[in-house]
UniProtKB/TrEMBL annotation:
GO terms for molecular function: ATP binding. Keywords: ATP-binding, Nucleotide-binding. This is ABC transporter ATP-binding protein. Gene3D superfamilies: P-loop containing nucleotide triphosphate hydrolases. SMART domains: AAA (SM00382). Pfam families: ABC_tran. The keyword Cell inner membrane does not apply. PANTHER family: ABC TRANSPORTER G FAMILY MEMBER 20 ISOFORM X1, ATP-BINDING CASSETTE, SUB-FAMILY H, MEMBER 1. Transmembrane segments: none annotated. The keyword Cell inner membrane does not apply. It comes from the Bacteria. InterPro entries: AAA+_ATPase (IPR003593), ABC_transporter-like_ATP-bd (IPR003439), ABC_transporter-like_CS (IPR017871), P-loop_NTPase (IPR027417). It comes from Pseudomonas zhanjiangensis.
Length: 312
């Protein structure tokens, strides 16, 4: 259960690369033992924000406090208290699973006896005991992911930052990985996870949605659904692709997606139904239009205002 104590506090956080503003006046607060999810389109500033929070990237403006440390001033002191896991496997592929963990233990300055015990514990916890002598480069995607997580938590960090850690693994491995994350949260570790997957976003205790470097939504999944600025409609018809073409350019339509033989349409409000019916009628498309339950993808589309694409 997350407490009210802030582990991460950022105010006015900004990062510019020349003329490009990657992160724009971002305010962020993450509480202890919280599983905070970062959502956002590619290029929205998720990775840049995470790198600034852990001291790997200097901000152009703003203030950051992580675990009581002022960043970037106290970045060196913070290193031993955080874990960082990237999208790309970053351990040594020509070392065995065991050798990778032993090397990381040395880098972290762990006592040999304590390191031996901790490594044995992590090999068992993350189902890597049988692969301990296997070269890391020959592991499956899910095994590499578990090894990277073991390396990130080897020194028992208070805060774990994960930058799209499940982008290259299968659904079963993702599910197992998230069970491991919840175990860490239950033990008191605070987690900040960036992801593209809506099913993962639903698992988070709180979400921050980034768009063009700005935080455009912040709250629990339930709070974000309740505050959805719009409503989803389900259009059932025999020609969903034709219906999508007919509705392209309709100003009341925020987004469209074909779901099986139906069309899911995000609209501004209830007044959008009439112009939608008129457009479908003009295209000689018979359809049944009904309201449907909102999901986090609807929230994501609504707050980031992703442009509606015409079907090919």
């Amino acid at each position: 259960m997350a407490s009210t104590e802030a582990v991460i506090q950022a105010s006015g956080l900004t990062k510019r690369f020349g003329q490009l503003t990657a992160v724009d006046d971002l305010d962020l607060r993450v509480r202890r033992a919280e599983v905070f999810g970062f959502l956002g389109p590619n290029g929205s500033g998720k990775s840049t924000t995470i790198r600034m929070l852990c001291g790997l990237l200097l901000p152009s403006a703003g203030e950051i406090e992580v675990l009581g440390c002022q960043i970037p001033r106290d970045a060196e002191a913070l290193k031993r208290r955080i874990g960082y896991m990237t999208q790309k496997f970053s351990l040594y592929e020509d070392l065995s699973v065991l050798e990778n963990l032993q090397f990381l233990a040395t880098v972290q300055g762990l006592d040999k006896g304590a390191a031996r015990q901790r490594i044995a514990e992590l090999l068992e916890r993350y189902w890597l005991s049988e692969q301990r002598q296997q070269m890391a480069g020959t592991l499956s995607g899910g095994q590499k992911q578990r090894l990277a997580l073991a390396g990130a938590v080897l020194h028992k960090p208070d805060l774990l930052l994960l930058d799209e850690p499940t982008s290259a693994v299968d659904p079963q491995s993702r599910r197992e990985f998230w069970e491991s994350l919840f175990e860490l949260a239950d033990a008191g570790t605070t987690l900040l996870v960036s992801t593209h997957y809506m099913d993962e976003a639903e698992r988070c205790t709180r979400l921050g949605i980034l768009d063009a470097g700005r935080l455009v939504a912040d709250g629990s999944p339930r709070e974000l659904l309740d505050a959805l600025p719009g409503q989803p409609l389900l259009i059932e018809c025999a020609q969903p692709r034709q219906a999508q073409r007919a509705l392209h350019g309709c100003e009341q339509v925020l987004a469209m997606a074909q779901i099986g033989a139906a069309l899911r349409v995000m609209v501004n409000d209830e007044t959008a139904r009439q112009p939608i019916e008129q457009r479908l009628h003009a295209a000689q498309i018979e359809a049944r239009i009904s309201r449907t339950e909102a999901n986090l993808e609807d929230v994501f589309v609504a707050v980031t205002r992703q442009p509606v694409q015409a079907p090919a």
